[in-house]
Amino acid sequence: MSIFLIAVGAILRYAINVTVEGVEIDTVGLILMVVGIIGLVISLAVTFMSDGERPRRPDDYPTRRL
To answer: What is the torsional sign of CA 31, 37, 39, 41?
Structure first.
């Protein structure tokens, strides 16, 4: 989702030359890019900061089927 927001923001910021009264398309594109970058940084931080290990309980292991 973050990459999508960055892409849409970049398109609005750099590729669209439409003027809408009351809305700055360039500003909306910049806001979307910033939000996308913040989301991407948070996602990567959560992914790489977690060690992925959690205490195992005996019932966490798969059962053997015969």
So the answer is: negative
